[in-house]
Request: fold
Amino acid sequence: MAVSTKTTTDEFIKGLWKDNPVFVQVLGMCPALAVSNTARNALAMGLATAFVLVMSNMVVSSLRSFIPKEVRIATYILVIATFVTLVDYVIQAISLDLYKALGAFISLIVVNCLILGRAEAFASKNTIARSTMDGLGMGVGFAFALFSIGAVREIFGAGSLFGVSLFHDAFQDWVVMVLPSGGFFTLAGWLLLFNWIKQRKAQRERAATLSLTEEAAR
Reply:
């Protein structure tokens, strides 16, 4: 039981950091850049994608023994489209302004390579518990990445966060940050940070391994 619990926990954690969909695997770039001009839009899209990812993973995993291999991709798309439609109606009911801001990108969750990829590569081969944790980890990691990009763009581009002003009236907005080019600049900065952290961790691991080797040689 302990091994099983650790395994499912690892499936969750890997999506947050080690295999983050955006900052490590560089997936879902279309919504990550298009709707991340504000923290609210980015977080809403991230949570919507996370919900679809978790639910589709659960359904695909539970039906994996009954889905013929010849129609598995079509079946996965049908399952994903069902939950995307549900999310589309829920967002429309909650906030029309948010619905209009996200636009067609809500419907485009259906073709998000992250969701279809997890259904094909993981959910179709693993238990419901592991598939759920994998979807939750990847989904939360995706939402975290979008929020990180959106927050930076809104803070520097509008001087606010979730619409709340953060700076003095004399603050000069960086207009470029709310433009499409600002999405690329912000994404590049986060990718640079993640790669730097990854390299530092690898260097520490190599140094630790070398130290152990030298001690063993003595």
In short: The chain has one domain: 2-217. Residues 2-217 form one domain. The mean pLDDT is 89.
